[in-house]
Amino acid sequence: MSAPAMIFSVSTLGRIDPLRRLLSSLRDQLHADDRVVLVAQDREAEVRALAREFDESAPGRLLVTTSPRGASIGRNTGVEHAAAQLDDAILMFPNDTTWYPAGSVATIRKGIGEAPAAAVAVVTPSGPRFELPLPGTRLDRSTVWSVIEMGLVMKLQTFRQVGGFDEAIGTGAASPWQAGEVTDLLLRAIAAQPDLAREFVWIVSANVGGVEEGTGLSPDERAWKLRAYGRGIGHVYRVHRFPLPLRVALIAAGLLVGVRRRREYRLRDGIPAMLGRWEGVRGRPFGDSLRTAVER
Predict the structure, then answer these.
(1) Structural contact between residues 196 and 140, judged by C-beta atoms closer than 8 angstroms
(2) Structure confidence at residue 262 (pLDDT)
(3) pLDDT at 222
(4) How far apart are CA 12 and CA 170, in angstroms?
């Protein structure tokens, strides 16, 4: 029995050069039934031109559509655009700055096997964004934080049963909660399908490439992104009813972001990180700002 098709659903603001790298990395790794969906939320004409360029070498495998802004709504839109006629598929959600090392798609396709969901590491030039737990580790309210969007692998049926990403949270969403969408998705999944916690696979034999969180941003933009992301993480702690001591610890740990992630941030960046987490845990921001984490 052949493996299900793979669908790569990519929300993009039209970053053409990184998109070209992503598509080039996938060019020789796709099966005939696989699909890459670019959900253009800006610079649509340029995205479509790039798609035509790629389609010459992989005809029929690249689709382009549009959606309102927001990574979560873009990912959901991409899945349904490609999967309307499919009973099953393996889903991944690369950013437009993600890429796939040679052989990684085959390893991921094999690695998920019959499991409903899995994760791979996202590795930047300075190292993994998060270390994966050892194979066999259960997915739970502690280990779920090791999965980030670009490393999530999920079967289409599971994704649909859980309801996809919550479009009210995540980067670019029309809310203050600018992160935490994959954590929220997986927490909902293990609540609705308890067996998923045991069956979840940590694919340590493959990884995908990514960039540092603050790449291309000014110091002020990086600090704001930390606060906006902190809001989203705090929101997840609140809506999924993490115990009060853990909420307090989350807020306090924000001050250490500049120490723990000193390759990316400065010591003073701990202040916006803490404030954002506090805003998320309390359920409303200080002030009226609804600015998104990333504007470009």
Answers:
(1) no
(2) 66
(3) 85
(4) 14
